[in-house]
Amino acid sequence: MPRFRRHEWVFLVAGLMPAALALAAPPAPETRAEFERALADFDEAQQIQLNRPDRSRRLFRLAAQRFSSVIASGVVNGRLEFNLANCHLQAGDVGRAILHYRRAERLIPQDETLSANLAEARSRCLTSIPPARRNAFIKSVFFWHYQTSIGGRSRAAMAAYVLFWLLLIIRSFARRRRVTVSAIVFGVLALAAGTSLAVTHWADRNAPEGVITSMDVVVQKGPGTGYQRQFEQPLQPGVEFTLRERRGEWWRIELADDKSGWIEAERADLIPTPGGVNPRF
C-alpha cells in the first residue's frame, strides 16, 4: 500500500536569484485558511475511508479542489503538489495523481515517499507502455539531470560558476596545479549544470512532457476525428507522453515506446505549469 504522508505548510519563499539569499513571505490569510480547510477535508476523508467510501472520495475531491486553489493563488511548493496528488490518488483519479506527483518531483525529486506514491499511481494505470531501450539508457546515464530539482541545479550552476572564476583569479597570483585542477572541475560542473537547465528550459517550451487525464482517449493518425485510429485500444488516465506538435485543439504525442499519434488537447495536461516551474522553496 502507498504511504500517504501529508506535508505541513511551508511558507512561500521568494528570491531574486536562484543562488541569492531568499526572503520568507507568509501566505495571505485567505490562502492559509483554504489550505487548512483542505487538510481538514483530507483528514476526515482518511478517517471514514473504510466505513463511508463514497463520502470519503467526495472529501478527497473537495480537498483536491482546495489545494488547487492554493496553487492557483501563486504558491509554488513541491509538498503542496504532493498533497494534491495524494488527494487525486485516494479519490481514484490516477491521471491527475501522476500529473501532480510529476510536478512535485520537479521540486522535491529525492523525496522517498513521493517516489513510492508515484510508483503506486503508475501501477494503477490501465494502459501499460514499456519504455524504449534508448529512453531508459539516456535516463540511466544522465540520472543526475532527472533526479535533481531545477532549483538545486540552478544553485549548483551559480556556485560552480562563481568558484570557477574565483579560482582563476587565485591562479593568476599562484600558479599551482591544485588550483588549476579545481578551476577545471568547477568549470565543468558549471557547464554541466547550466546545460542541464538549458535542456530543461528548451524541453518545457518545445517538447514538454504530459499525462493523459481522461478515460478512453482515442489516438488518431492525424489532427481530427476524421482520421483513422492509430492504436486499436484507447489510452487510459495516467499514460505519460512527450508533446511533439500542436495543431489547433490537437496534440501529436510520443509515448514511452516511441510510437506517436494525435489526441484532443483537452483530454490531457502538461507537467510544466503554464509559466514554467518557478523554483521557489
Describe the structure using short key phrases.
Serine Threonine Protein Phosphatase 5, Tetratricopeptide repeat, globular, 9 helices, alpha+beta, two-stranded antiparallel sheet, 7 strands, SH3 type barrels, 52% helix, 3 domains, 281 residues, five-stranded antiparallel beta sheet, disordered C terminus
Task: Give a written overview of the molecule.
The chain has nine helices and seven strands; from the N terminus they run E-E-H-H-H-H-H-H-H-H-H-E-E-E-E-E. With 281 residues, the protein is of the alpha+beta class. The protein folds into three domains: 12-123, Tetratricopeptide repeat domain (Serine Threonine Protein Phosphatase 5, Tetratricopeptide repeat), CATH 1.25.40.10; 134-205; 209-270, SH3 type barrels (Roll), CATH 2.30.30. The protein has a five-stranded antiparallel sheet. Strands 1-2 form a two-stranded antiparallel ribbon. The protein is globular and about 70 Å long. The protein starts with 11 loop residues before the first strand and ends in an 11-residue tail after the last strand. Mean pLDDT is 83; it is low at 8-24 and 275-281.
Overview in brief:
It is built from nine helices and seven strands, in the order ββαααααααααβββββ. It has helices at residues 29-47, 53-72, 78-90, 94-107, 112-123, 133-141, 143-146, 150-173, 177-206; strands spanning 12-14, 23-25, 209-212, 240-247, 250-255, 260-264, 268-270.
